[in-house]
Amino acid sequence: MLTKDLIGLVASATGLSKKKTEELLSTSNAIMRENLMAGKAIQLQGLGVLEVKTRSARTIVHPRTGERTVVPSKNQLVFRPVANLKDELKKI
Nearest to residue 39, comparing CAs of 75, 13, 64, 6? Predict the structure, then answer.
């Protein structure tokens, strides 16, 4: 689904104009982004949790040459769905 599709669906469901809905979604995205950058998890009711986790440094081995390389640690965005959503996804 594209952003413009989401804006249209939310606008028709709420009765707001598409312009107001776009502003609302844009503001929501900015707030969520700020909180994720600050290291805070975001719980989306009925969907799951968005959070930033640090993936630790690790050593990998090139399969052809056998050369070992260290991959540095990095931050990764992780989504954990709620249990009932996991169950529903298994059924489709």
Answer: 75
